[in-house]
């Protein structure tokens, strides 16, 4: 049984996020800075990656001023506190192999210095010295002190309510470590 490490290529990896509210949704991207995935006999056994919270981009708001204002709000203490916490982290703590390169992953996600366990399904593809991994993580933002317009903490929000769950669609490209 041979253990191999794959280094995450930040330039070829990203997270597509979707946040929903009563009146619709917003979406965008956030960069993955670095990380590694560890395989044993070509099966995933562990890994981690670092997210750059200062890189949040909003794709669906086309007005430049509104986009900048929204990006500033996402970087504020109401959401990611990017100045105080420029990085978020995910560390795999348990892996269950399924069929056809599918896995159930359990790990610790740290945002704003707050760590919670998350679980999600992922697909890993290995092609010689290149590896791709993808999965959708659903996050309850209130567990990371993101309470802005949450129905759990504020009443009578009407159509300004922002749902607590948001999606992180993670796509990782990695290369065999030298």
What can be said about the biggest beta sheet? 9 strands, antiparallel
Inertia-based shape:
elongated
* Proportion of beta-strand residues: over 45%
Please give the share of residues in helix: under 10%
> Helical element count?
1
Structure summary, number of beta strands: 9
Low-confidence regions: 148-161
Distance, first to last CA: 19 Å
Mean pLDDT value: 86
Alpha-beta classification: mainly beta
Give the C-alpha Rg: 17 Å
Order of helices and strands: EEEEHEEEEE
Name the features:
mainly beta, 178 residues, 9-stranded antiparallel beta sheet
Describe the protein's architecture and organization:
The structure is a single chain. Strands 1, 2, 3, 4, 5, 6, 7, 8 and 9 form a 9-stranded antiparallel beta sheet that branches. The protein contains 1 helix and 9 strands. About 8% of the residues have low confidence. β7 and β8 form a beta hairpin. It starts with a strand and ends with a strand. It is mainly beta and 178 residues long. Helices cover 7% and strands 61% of the residues. The longest helix has 12 residues.
């Amino acid at each position: 049984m041979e253990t191999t490490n794959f280094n995450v290529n930040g330039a070829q990896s990203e997270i597509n996020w979707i946040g929903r509210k009563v009146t619709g949704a917003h979406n965008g991207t956030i960069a993955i800075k670095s990380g590694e995935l560890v395989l044993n006999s070509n099966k995933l056994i562990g890994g981690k990656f670092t997210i750059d919270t200062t890189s949040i981009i909003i794709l669906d708001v086309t007005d430049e001023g509104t986009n900048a204002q929204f990006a500033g709000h996402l970087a504020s203490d109401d959401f990611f506190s990017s100045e105080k916490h420029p990085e978020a982290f995910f560390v795999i703590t348990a892996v269950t192999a399924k069929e056809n390169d599918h896995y159930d992953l359990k790990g610790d996600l740290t945002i704003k210095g707050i760590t919670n366990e998350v679980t999600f399904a992922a697909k890993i593809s290995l092609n010689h010295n290149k590896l791709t991994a993808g999965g959708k993580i659903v996050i309850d933002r209130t567990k990371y002190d993101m309470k802005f317009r949450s129905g759990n903490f504020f009443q009578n929000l009407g159509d300004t309510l922002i749902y607590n769950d948001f999606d992180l669609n993670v796509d990782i490209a990695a290369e065999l470590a030298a």
